[in-house]
Amino acid sequence: MKTIGFIGGGRITNIFLHAFENSGISLENVSVSDINQEVLNALKHKYPTITITTDNLQVVSESSVVFIAVHPPVL
Fold first, then answer.
1. CA 60 from chain center: how many Å?
2. In what order do the strands lie in the sheet with 65-68?
3. How many C-beta atoms lie closer than 10 Å to residue 39's C-beta?
4. Secondary structure tally for the chain: helices H, strands E
5. Confidence of residue 73 (pLDDT cuts 50, 70, 90)
6. Which of 60, 62, 36, 25 is nearest to 11 (CA)?
7. pLDDT class for 69, splitting at 50, 70, 90?
8. Three-state secondary structure of 29-51
9. Considering only CA atoms, which of 36, 66, 71, 68 is closest in space to residue 53?
10. For residues 50 and 25, what is the distance between their CA atoms, to the nearest angstrom?
11. Phi (first) and psi of residue 44, to 5 degrees
12. Helix, strand, coil share (%) of the chain residues, nearest 5
């Protein structure tokens, strides 16, 4: 099964995760990286089946598909 990674755990990531969940897509192969631990905790609370929440970009970059979900100035 393919893995999905998100760099950034904000609004856009939440929108995607909500859409995946509504479509019946399993979040068991999803990882999210963000520098803000509170953001990661909130996502893990809202979507408990997310496999990995981390501040380590290396983990997310090894996913089959990676979404860069950060504000353009952060890039």
1. 8
2. 52-54, 30-33, 4-7, 65-68
3. 17
4. 3, 4
5. confident
6. 36
7. very high
8. CEEEECCCHHHHHHHHHHCCCCC
9. 36
10. 11
11. -65, -35
12. 40, 20, 40
What count of residues does the chain have? 75
Q: Which helix (H) or strand (E) holds 70?
A: none
Phi, psi of 9 (to 5 degrees): -115, 25
CA-based angle 15:45:54, to the nearest 5?
80
For residue 29, the one-letter residue type is N
* 19-67 confidence digits (pLDDT tens): 999 999 889 999 999 999 999 999 999 999 999 999 999 999 999 999 9
* Pairwise CA distance, residues 13 & 7, whole Å: 8
Q: What is the pTM for the complete model shown?
A: 0.91
